[in-house]
Design goal:
about 350 residues; 2 domains; alpha/beta; Immunoglobulin-like; single chain
Length: about 350
C-alpha cells in the first residue's frame, strides 16, 4: 500500500507540472531576499533498483548532490528550518533540508559517503523494529551509531513497527512510540525529538495523542514547500523515487517556494466533510494569481478554481474523495523562474 501510494502521488505531481517544466530550466536569477519558505526532500533507498518505488539510482543521487552543491542553494540541517518556521523567521532563498526514512543499509553504504563528501547534512528517521529484527536490508545499530556520531547527521523518531498510526487506538499508538523510545534510549542514549509519521499519515487525534511527547516538529509526506503558515507538526516533504527523480524534476522542486497564504481551509487533513471545501487567501503582494493551477491526486484534470475578490482561492468538488490518501497540489509561476507551490493532504482512511 505504501509503495502504491508513493508511486501514485509522484505520478500525479510529476505530470501535473511537467508540461511547463521549461519555465524552470531557463537561467536561474538568484535573488537574495529572505523568504518564509523552505523545501524538505525525502529519500528511502539508494542504488536498490529492485525497490523502484522507494529507490533512487546512484546516478540520480550523484546528479542531485552535484546540483545541491551549487552556490545558489542553502542546504541546512532540518532543525534550522523547523526553528525558523516556528519562530516565523525568514530564510535565504532555496533553503533545503534532506531527510531519509526507515534506516535501509544503502543509506550507510551509498548515501552517507556521498553526502559526507559534499558536506551536506541530513536527518535519518529510523523505525526501530526493522533495525532490531534486521529485516528489509536494514542498517545495524552499530552502523546507525556511527552515522549519528557524524555532525552532519541527525536522527529522528519514526515509531517502532512503521504502522498505520491513525488507525491504531490511542493506547496502541502510544505503546508503539514507547517501544521505539526504549530502543532509541538503549541503542543511542537518547530519544529523538523530531517525528516523521509512518506513511505520512496523520490525524487530529494522532496529533493529540503525540502532544505529550513534546516533539520539536513532525513531518508528513506530501508535496509542498514549507512555510510558517502551516502547522509545524504536519510539515510537507517532497518524496523522490527512481521513476520521478530526473534532474529536471529535482531542480523544479528544489527551486520551488511556498505560496504566501493564510486562512487555509479546511484546517484538518481528516476528511470530516467529504468532499472538502478548500480555500486559502494569497498575500496581496503576489502577482499572477490567474495562472494558479490546482491538481487533485484522485482526478485526471485540474480542479476548478474560483477567485473570490482579488486574493481568495476556493476549490469545490462535485464528488466525494474516494477512500485512501489524497492531496491537492497548487502551483503557479513566480519571480526568478521559480514556482510557488502549495500542497494539502487529505486522508479518508476509515476507522
Ligand atoms: Zn517510513
Amino acid at each position: 500500500m505504501k509503495k502504491l501510494f508513493i508511486h501514485f502521488c509522484l505520478i500525479i505531481s510529476y505530470f501535473s507540472i511537467y508540461p511547463t517544466l521549461s519555465f524552470a530550466q531557463s537561467e536561474v536569477t538568484a535573488s537574495s531576499a529572505a523568504e518564509d519558505s523552505a523545501v524538505i526532500i525525502m529519500y528511502h533507498r539508494f542504488g536498490e533498483k529492485t525497490f523502484p518505488t522507494t529507490n533512487v539510482t546512484l546516478d540520480q543521487i550523484d546528479q542531485h548532490i552535484a546540483e545541491l552543491s551549487k552556490d545558489i542553494y542553502n542546504i541546512v540541517p532540518l532543525r534550522t528550518i523547523t526553528e525558523a518556521l516556528k519562530n516565523e523567521k525568514k530564510l535565504p532563498p532555496r533553503t533545503i533540508a534532506i531527510t531519509i526514512d526507515d534506516g535501509y543499509l544503502s543509506i550507510y553504504q551509498q548515501a552517507w559517503p556521498r553526502f559526507k563528501a559534499a558536506n551536506i547534512p541530513f536527518t535519518l528517521f529510523i523505525s526501530t523494529a526493522s533495525v532490531n529484527d534486521q529485516n528489509k536490508l536494514s542498517m545495524t545499530w552499530d552502523q546507525i551509531r556511527e552515522l549519528a556520531s557524524d555532525p552532519l547527521v541527525d536522527i529522528g523518531h519514526h515509531g517502532h513497527v512503521h504502522g498505520h498510526m491513525t488507525q491504531m487506538s490511542t493506547p496502541d499508538a502510544l505503546a508503539d512510540i514507547e517501544l521505539a523510545d526504549e530502543t532509541y534510549r538503549r541503542e543511542l542514549g537518547y530519544v529523538p525529538d523530531i517525528f516523521a509519521y509512518p506513511y505520512g499519515e496523520y490525524s487530529d487525534e494522532l496529533a493529540e495523542t503525540l502532544a505529550p511527547k513534546n516533539y520539536h516538529a513532525a513531518l508528513g509526506q506530501y508535496s509542498s514547500a514549507a512555510s510558517s503558515a502551516r502547522d509545524v507538526m504536519t510539515l510537507p516533504r517532497f518524496a523522490f523515487n527512481q521513476n520521478y527523480a530526473d534532474l529536471d524534476r529535482f531542480k523544479l522542486i528544489i527551486n520551488s517556494r511556498a505560496l504566501p497564504i493564510k486562512d487555509i481551509l479546511p484546517r484538518s487533513a481528516n476528511l470530516e466533510n467529504n468532499p472538502p471545501a478548500v480555500g486559502f487567501t494569497v498575500n496581496e503582494d503576489i502577482n499572477g494569481l490567474s495562472n494558479i493551477g490546482c491538481f487533485p491526486s484522485h482526478m485526471s484534470e485540474a480542479a476548478k478554481v474560483t477567485r473570490i475578490g482579488e486574493n481568495r482561492i476556493e476549490i469545490r468538488f462535485d464528488q466525494p474523495f474516494p477512500a485512501g490518501r489524497h492531496r491537492i497540489n497548487c502551483t503557479m509561476p513566480g519571480p526568478d523562474n521559480r514556482w510557488y507551490w502549495f500542497g494539502m493532504p487529505f486522508f479518508n482512511l476509515g476507522d
